[in-house]
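Quick entry between incubations.
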Amino acid sequence: MDHSRTIIHIDLDCFYAQVEMNKNPSLRTVPLGIQQKNIVVTSNYTAREFGIKKCMLIPEAKKLCPSLVLVNGEDLHDYRQTSYKVTNLLQKYTPLVERLGLDENYLDVTTLINEKLNQKSDLKLVGNVFGDTSDKCECGCTERLIIATTVAQEIRDVIKSELNLTSCAGIAHNKLLAKIAGARHKPNQQTVVFPNSALELILSLNAPNDIPGIGRALFEQLKCIGVETIEELQNVDLKRLETVLGQDKAKLVHELSLGIDKSGVKPTGKPQSIGLEDSCRSISVETEVKIKLEQLLNRLLLLVEEDGRVPKTIKLTVRKFNKDNKMSHRETRQCNVNPSIFSSSQPNKEAKIMTTIMHLFNRIIDVKKPYHITLLGLSFTKFQEPPKNTLASFLRKDLEVQSVLSIENQNGVEDAESPVPSTSKLAPTEGESPTPSPKKLKLTNLVSKKRCFEDYYEDCESPSKLKVADLCLDSVSCPPDADKEVFKELPKEVQKELWEDYKRRRASEMNFCSSQVKKTKPNTLLNYFIRNN
DNA sequence: TGGGGTCCT
DNA sequence: AGGACCC
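Done. Structure below.
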């Protein structure tokens, strides 16, 4: 077996509740529930002592705990923001950070651990251990996992000190085991599991669908062939499993049941979609539909503006009333939109977008017949170009021009555009814990977001006129797409970053163009900035 | 049972 | 466009 990787799973404790308690510290001392419609989606640990459970109905929760304080958590904006702050912190340890929902992250710390291994730091196991450790694997994984317990503790300490959030961590040689182990001791604790305890850990779960990756549908299929417990799944005849699941799925599921998980930690880049939903008792007239969708659209436009990218398609989701318990049944329709519609200079773009949304709506609902809608959702997908969250993006004058200059982020790998150079990444570390990087320069407040478009072509040289040689010089000059007057006033360091950013973008363009023509990868600057390629 | 997301078919 | 999975 291969135990060469070291994975840490970080899970924020009752995440929404923690965010609300940080916003309003007086909530810390009371039983707190986060409410979405008629449901308590999560609660703080004070409330849990009353027996409040995830996804409990409000009346039931109130009966268990009449003093329960409820905060509405239907707008995820603040949770999403905090969530990304956590992920950004984690990315200082390794670029291999994968998000799962808003409150979980996987880290592949293999490289970092191997570096620490060479430094001969003393082996001190921190936190809980799952299972018995008398039978020790000799492949080296034991030492690696022990070092990782210290790293996990450091990471949790930083999340606490920087963001005032407590979390749990699971440490193992794969994602599956790390996640399951982390849930053993909650809250604000961590657990390591060694390979020899993998089977025991999996068997400690109650049912096959407690294994991440085995959901309701798979569980039902398993039942059909008489597999109801994890033990039965572990011992099932593979051929029989294949008859219902097919070869690939059968192998995967069987391996999961044995604690084997070969899946890698996939760096999560920018979201593939940004959407909003609103459930409701009943909507059956068109004006109400319009009002709801307008609300959703206005909120969504703000989110997309924050994101910085421009979407190319829009998707409408409708859930019709269904007396059967098929609550999950939704219908969607999508269409492409001209990205120019999102331009800030576009006069009443809301109305224009609403027109296409209502067109989608009419593809799902025949408004001449009675209807009964219980959910409306709107989402934007297929974004143009990766946004460049750098100082440069701020000074760039025109979104449309920007889109011409940029390329799609083809593999979703982090694009080396982090405003703070991730120092600890792959470079050898100095042995101490990763120090928080210097505070980001908050240009947001320094530079007005107002951009003027008119003089772009007069003011700037065409990028195509820039010679490749310019890109290789050490000297720093003003990128053609930045405001020269503003640029002059900036500190030298900032000027340098803007110029570096511009060079990177130029390099990307060059590679983009040539790779369209010939399949071979030219040895451009880009190769230094794009990994896994 | 909410309000999100991902990837595969 | 839907369905599986995840939180």
